[in-house]
Structures are given as C-alpha cells and as structure tokens.
Amino acid sequence: MPAVIEVEDQRQILIVEDDSDTAEVVAALLETAGYTTVSVEDGTTALEEIQSATPDLVLLDLNLPDIDGLDVLRSVREQSFLPMIILSGFTQGRDKVLALEAGADDFLSKPFIPEELVARVGALLRRVKWTPVAEPRLAVRHLELDLARRQATMHGKRLHLTPIEYGILATLMRKAGQIVSHDELLRNVWGEQYEGDYSVLRVNISRLRQKLEDNPRHPSYVVTVPGQGYTMPTRLS
User: Fold this and answer.
1) Strand-pair category, 12-16 with 57-60
2) What local confidence, expressed as pLDDT, does residue 199 receive?
3) C-alpha torsion angle, residues 132, 134, 136, 141 (rounded to 10)
4) In a domain? residue 71
5) Taking the chain (237 residues) in consecutive chunks of 10 residues, what is each chunk's mean pLDDT?
C-alpha cells in the first residue's frame, strides 16, 4: 500500500472507468493519498458530473460502453481545460498520441504502478495550483504571460492553454533566447520520470504552436533546434 501523502485541501478526482474492479482499486489508492473520489461507468454520466460537480481532475478510460473516451475528452476540451489523465488498457503508441492531440494532459497505461498513478495525479494538480510570485509577468515580442493569473496573451488577445501548454510556455519564456533541451522541458513540465519521452513533448509543442503561431509550420516563437531542443527567439532575424 502506498504511503499516505498529505494534501493541503481535499481535491476531488473523477474516475471514469467501466470496470468496477479497476475503479475500486484506483479510488482506494487516491483516497489513501488524501483525495476524495467519485466513480462513474460511462461517458454520458462523466460529462454530466463534470458539468455539475466540477472535479479538480479526471482519470478517463478510453474504452467506455457508450461514448468513446476520446470523444469525451474532446467534448470537455471545447469548454474547459480541466486537468485530465488518460488511464487506458490501449498501449499502442498511436493511442497515446491521439489522446494527447485531443487535449489529454497525461497518459498512463494499464496495468499501472500504484505509486506512479498517485505521483502523476499529484504532479498535475501541483502544476495547476502553482502560482509564482517573484516574476509576475514575462514578455517576448507580442507574447505576454501573466504568471500570477496564469494567463497568456498574444497581441493582447487571450490564449486558452492547457496546464501542460502553460508549463511549456512559461519554461521557454523564462529562458527566451536560450536553447532548452528536450529533457529539461520534460523535467520542468512533467517531472523526471518523463525524461526520454519525446512523443509527449512533440505532441504538446505542436498543439502550442497551433495557438501561438501565424504559421505553425514555420514557427517564430517555439523554434526547433535540431538534435538539441527548442528555443524562443527574443527578436526576429
């Protein structure tokens, strides 16, 4: 049984899982770690629960009896950046990429290591909650990031970012003009256990470029440095 983790305030986790045994195991793990949980078995009920109860994080299975899990994810992302982790028996790399492209913040395959599940939930919730105070605002050309409010704007227009996209942007803006390696971005945004997982990074960089760049195929804000990482130029050459 994992060690109990102290949580500042009880955060509610919605578990969307049609297998009752798996849902029971996940709920027990999270409640031992100090969270409260609600479990539902299908996508329709999950969407109703998200709308009415506004959980702090969702653990979402892809294989649901009524609505495909990816469709649930896309539906939520149309109106909310609620933290969402896919917990799925599908282990193909393409499934992971599709989930990340649809807006998932993380992807964990079954069978999972209990401590890893609890750690990933905690890490994502910390990223959402964390508010820096030493540097309230960053600016690179027409891009501004209000760290206190966790809001990004381009040409004064607000960008709607997921917690992961926000973390990537904040990391690159803090080191504007420098090269940030793939593994440094993974450590800063996801955690040390993600080092080497470049697919999760590439998908989220692609999503971020769609929101930042006039031409995502020829980016000027999040620029690839082949074989090294990414950089955010402070001025156009």
Assistant:
1) parallel
2) 86
3) -110
4) yes
5) 48 95 95 96 95 92 93 90 87 79 90 92 79 69 88 93 91 95 91 81 94 95 96 89
Residue 123 amino acid letter: A
| Strands of 48-142, DSSP E | 57-60, 84-88, 106-109, 137-140
Structural domain including 176 reads: 137-231
Residues 155-193 as b/e (b if ≥16 CB within 10 A, e otherwise) read eeeebebbbbbbbbbbbbbbbbeeebebbebbebbbbee
| Residue listed under structure tokens 């027990």 | 28
Supply φ then ψ for residue 154, to 5 degrees.
-125, 120
Which residue is listed with tokens 């195929």? Answer: 217
| Residue 237, in any domain of the structure | no
Q: Give the single-character DSSP code of 180.
A: E
Is residue 101 domain-shared with residue 28, that is, in the same domain? Answer: yes
Count of structural domains within the chain:
2
| Predicted local confidence at residue 91, as pLDDT | 61
- Amino acid residing at 58: V
For residues 89 and 158, membership in a common domain is answered with: no
Q: HSE (CB half, 13 Å, CA atoms) of 212? A: 28
Beta bridge pairs of residue 13: 37, 57
Write down the pTM of the prediction.
0.69
